[in-house]
Write a structure and sequence with these properties.
homodimer; 469 residues; alpha+beta; Uridine Diphospho-n-acetylenolpyruvylglucosamine Reductase, domain 2; Uridine Diphospho-n-acetylenolpyruvylglucosamine Reductase, domain 3; 16 helices; 34% helix; disordered C terminus
């Protein structure tokens, strides 16, 4: 590829500082929050839909791969480039509108999730999806991975809030899909394909999101269990008992010990498991829910450690929930490297899955910390390892494969909220029959015939070895 | 077409009584709940996925149109055949599983919505989507039209409850899309395309639905307004005030008068508008919500007529909500024929849309009753007319077109929950740019290359006249 010519064409409509070519500058865009590494040939800092369309026209002409990127918090290598153009959307970070009468927000893809939440709260409105990285990650990335978070147990995932999208396709054509209405059955719902497509179908340049009224109160509980199975069984029992909690978050002993040494808060590190539960709504309803939750937990051997209750989202509940958000950074301290998997299983399979992960840890001699959104069956088994140790990395690969096999055999899926990206690509042919993979490829070809949009992510090529029967 | 040969092939795997050819029997399957009329050449009563696959293989071989059908309650002509095979899915009416531990139901497409709700309630579980025809309509049809209903204001539409689908494509191939998990970002979410596709992409043969815990209490209010604008403005104000009601349903004076003479319940027929509002949840929260709702309504000129409050879903609230469900049958008494439109506008545009509909009624001299799910901007303006009067029908066509134009110009859509079917087909090219229509057609061709699945519905052909600029 004649990169000088590419850069010249890019600069026909972009300022020189929007088109970055020096090595030091590009290196920053070679990574996400995993250990996957790559290097873009050029980084373009997009500031508008027109900028994006310009880049995609050139890239499509010259068949250059384009990797869209928000703030690089991804956990599957989805934004890691293997050459080509890194299209940085972080500069498109304006909240274009918050409209309480229509109950919507319109944002550019580079808006940080927490920024949108705060801006909504200023109007008494609530944007529920809350990935753990919400202080850093962007809405565009959230849509591209259909991001979840603890509150998604009650409120659903990012998809449930997307009313409209503007997307730019590989040839530079912009489409507006959906809009500001709450109900629409007038066409095929194309925007649904882009949600969770991990940048492989086009670039999301504007997002219209539904907002809810802010619930007036929130409360939370921390419950310890001597046995890990007890926590899993209590969760299944709670969710069958007529209560829909705001969240049910789980941590095993390893995770708790890591969090406690990362930021001490008096966690019972001798217990095998911790559940953090929360409820929101009218104050009286929250109090009633917390009481019912405590009683189900205690019936299943749970021990109430702490209760937080705020009528106006004061810090007590937030403090308790902060414990959960520290899980990932705390575990990062335990070993040179970690891999966080993201399987989801049907709720009833949670105890079996937790047991199987413990077995896999013993079988492969790889420490696996377990935490996650247990309420919706979405667990993040975290493999602790040292990439410098080849033998260990072979065992890590075996452990990951065994976790995926177990999830699939229980009716679960490879990823609940992180995406397939680069790192789970090899397992996709195990998760879908060939007939469905063929439809995936046909859809991809329909929107991106030259395969320039984030190629080699999400969807393995047709020649992929493991697809053979 | 050699129908004798078709019938012979169909009967190779189907009992004779599953393949209906006599005129009287077929006539029943020529209509839905609109005045559109057609006639299938053959009716097949499907009892299994294998039956459906058998029919679609033959139909695809011989290029015979197939119109899938539930109970024929559609309001857009979507299930009205123009020859070909009517594929009656009503016999596939088994609830295959209700699993409280996983919080799901698995049903065949012919299960009646209310039947699923009752079966769920027996487990303390709640299936929220509640189209007005819920005593008769089927889940398959609900998925095919992404059906809504009053409760969808708080709980979302059918799409929000679909976790998994089994679909049979035109060639007879069955695909399982999604499953029992609450979160999944491992492939492109193909099932989303089938939701709201109105039988044009394939036949839905099994549906896995998410169920919620049953809220313990429900309450409702009836509020009268002297001025129609007052009701519209009160709705916008209520939804901007931090409350998310279970529903906000609206009726204008014509609708109220019709309902009152259909089944008298003391409605204030001298008022210009009625709002029915409801809340659900913990009893204390419901009481608090009702009080806040009353106070917003009164601030905007509303007059409280009745309050219903049940801690255990006793009949009081149901009685009040029954008023709303009578709107459509009651209006049917007012004139020889009626057309119920199904536009949705952004919430803030409700007052302007209501005013515009009144103007259109005056301009065309066609009585238009107005009711609907005003809380989510989804209105059902109902044109009262006599099909035997050609001049009147010309004015009806003008009135419908003017309503669609108004909705589109306000950022609204042609259909919120009924679908495009046959009756709104002409307006689709006004609602979407050519680039999007082309993607719709490419998607259709991807799943149904020979265009046998409900052809001539949902999506106008590429040669459609009004598409020219």
């Amino acid at each position: 590829m004649d990169w000088e010519r590419v850069v010249r064409r890019l600069r026909e409509r972009l300022r020189p500082d929007q088109v970055e070519t020096d090595l030091a500058g590009r290196r920053v865009y070679g990574r996400d929050a995993t250990w996957a590494e790559g290097m873009p040939d050029v980084v373009v800092h997009a500031e508008s839909t027109a900028d994006v369309a310009h880049v995609l026209r050139i890239a499509n002409d010259l068949r250059i791969p384009v990797v869209p990127r928000g703030r690089g918090t991804g956990l599957a290598g989805g934004a890691v480039p293997k050459g080509g153009i890194c299209l940085n959307l972080a500069p498109m970070n304006r909240i274009l509108a918050i409209d309480p009468a229509d109950g919507i927000a319109i944002v550019q893809p580079g808006v940080i999730t927490r920024t949108l939440q705060q801006a909504s709260e200023a109007h008494g409105l609530f944007y529920p999806p809350d990935p753990a990285s919400l202080e850093t990650c962007t809405i565009g990335g959230n849509v591209a991975t259909n991001a979840g978070g603890p509150c998604c147990l009650k409120y659903g995932v990012t998809r449930d809030y997307v009313l409209g999208l503007e997307v730019v396709l590989a040839g530079g054509e912009a489409l507006r899909l959906g809009g500001r209405v709450m109900k629409d059955v007038s066409g095929y719902d194309l925007k649904q394909l882009f949600i969770g497509s991990e940048g492989t179908l086009g670039v999301i340049t504007e997002i219209t999101l539904r907002l809810l009224p802010m619930p007036p109160a929130r409360g939370a509980l921390a419950i310890a269990f001597n046995r890990l199975e007890g926590a899993c069984e209590a969760t299944v029992a709670l969710l069958s008992s007529g209560i829909l909690p705001l969240m049910v978050e789980f941590m095993d002993q390893t995770t708790m010990q890591a969090v406690e040494s990362f930021r001490p808060s008096g966690l019972p590190t001798q217990a095998e498991a911790l559940l953090l539960l929360a409820a929101d709504g009218e104050p009286a309803a929250v109090e009633a829910d917390l009481q019912r939750m405590i009683s189900v937990m205690q019936r299943h051997g749970g021990q109430l450690l702490r209760t937080a209750f705020d009528a106006d989202n004061t810090p007590y509940t937030e403090e308790l929930l902060e414990i959960r958000r520290n899980a990932s950074p705390a575990l990062a301290q335990l070993a040179p490297h970690k891999i966080s998997e993201d399987i989801t299983v049907p709720r009833s399979k949670i105890p079996a899955m937790a047991r199987r992960i413990q077995e896999i840890s013993r079988e492969t001699d790889i420490p696996i910390a377990l935490y996650g959104h247990i309420g919706d069956g979405n667990l993040h088994p975290t493999l602790l390892c040292d990439r410098g140790n080849p033998d260990e990395m072979t065992r890590v690969a075996h452990a990951s494969a065994a976790i995926f096999e177990a999830a699939l055999s229980m009716g679960g899926v490879l990823s609940g909220e992180h995406g397939i990206g680069l790192l789970k690509l090899d397992f996709v042919p195990r998760a879908f029959p060939i007939a469905i993979l063929e439809k995936f490829r046909a859809l991809k070809a329909l929107f991106d015939p030259q395969n320039i949009m984030n190629p080699g992510k999400k969807l393995p090529p047709a020649t992929h070895l493991s697809e053979e029967p």
